[in-house]
User: What shape does this take?
Amino acid sequence: MKKRNKKITAGILVIGNEILSGRTIDQNISFLALWLNNNLGIKVSEVRIVPDIESKIVTNVLSLSKKNNYVLTTGGIGPTHDDITAKSISKAFKKKYTYHKEAYNILLKYYGHKNFNDPRKKMAKMPTGSKLIYNPSSAAPGFMIKNVICLPGVPSILKSMVDNLKQYLVPGSKIYSLSISTQTIESNIANGLEIAQKKYRKFVDIGSYPFFRLGKIGVSIVIRSSNKTRLQSCHKTIVKFLKKKKLKIFKGI
Amino acid sequence: MKKRNKKITAGILVIGNEILSGRTIDQNISFLALWLNNNLGIKVSEVRIVPDIESKIVTNVLSLSKKNNYVLTTGGIGPTHDDITAKSISKAFKKKYTYHKEAYNILLKYYGHKNFNDPRKKMAKMPTGSKLIYNPSSAAPGFMIKNVICLPGVPSILKSMVDNLKQYLVPGSKIYSLSISTQTIESNIANGLEIAQKKYRKFVDIGSYPFFRLGKIGVSIVIRSSNKTRLQSCHKTIVKFLKKKKLKIFKGI
Assistant: This one.
């Protein structure tokens, strides 16, 4: 693995009317964000969800591509008329939208000559010069062109493909995180957290998240940093402040 | 209710590091999209998820505000240091960020003089000229300024507030939808769906979504339109095509 010494960011572009209509609850954003963070030290900087409309895909993929080291798209690479991701990305980067020879052969082998109809062949079409992301679940590969990686929308298939994607991504500095949960309401501890955040401004991100679980009201404080020593020191500061307030600290939430 | 005779769109801006880190799976996008669609005929055109960074909130809220009739933001209106939505939106619209008298009084009454500390008071600060969205769960109101509506991130609280938001939104044309589920794979029916989509291009959106449930593989076809007659006619076309292919049609999926 290459040396982790810098900040690497990714944007996620979710392509699909079914997410915007509310019909489907997205599961891929959270999975990809955790996977990128934990395995590669890549931070997701922004997510956009757009409909199956070519112009919207083109504008947003170009915008995210300029601002981030990587863009991961999900959805729209299947065989039906509403799967327009590969064609749209070709247009965005002014590449020819054409058959990828290896992808064509993978699909031909998977379906057999007799069943390799036009919709299935379409899944081998992508921007010229794309690298393939192999798909161990259902053959149809994802692809990478420039800094954009196109993955399917079905969560189980997407999950099965990320191991084959790893080789194309340069890792960033590892991001460490620690959680502290306590039985209180946010406004009781807001001042202390603000003081801690000011003290560690350059090194640690402190997040505060109220929860209501199993009849208990509480706050989870999540602290994140690429500097392990500062993170532990910030953790100590917060725990000390909570103890001074006589608040109980939970484990495992 | 006002007459529903036009296309009304909304953008959603999710504000929160916890969604971008993958720690929290967003539940509000799907809820808001369904609620806007089903109750008001308002279509969600785009969603963006941004971190708790003022400049990012400002840029994205202005961009979505220009392109849509409404923008709904979620998250960042609590009492802690990372709750910067109200301040950022004030900056975006060049409004003073100050106490809203009614909001202040609501919170004062809720907490009582003795417990009304600075973090709690902060929840009464918002852009000058905001209208309040009352909060029956935990008092702290949301607000509307220009065409932007700011709601909390905690799903149960957000859900309890949308009835109080309805009065501020002009409804659009009702969007009808029908689903057809069948036991096949997408590439088997892609050609037929494409023909149907071309036939009803101007009136109906046809979406195709593979599923894997209870050991069954299938496709859900979702058709949507503001024109009920065309929707039913398109439904007939698709059912006829599936029957010709001898495919079984499921109910209730």
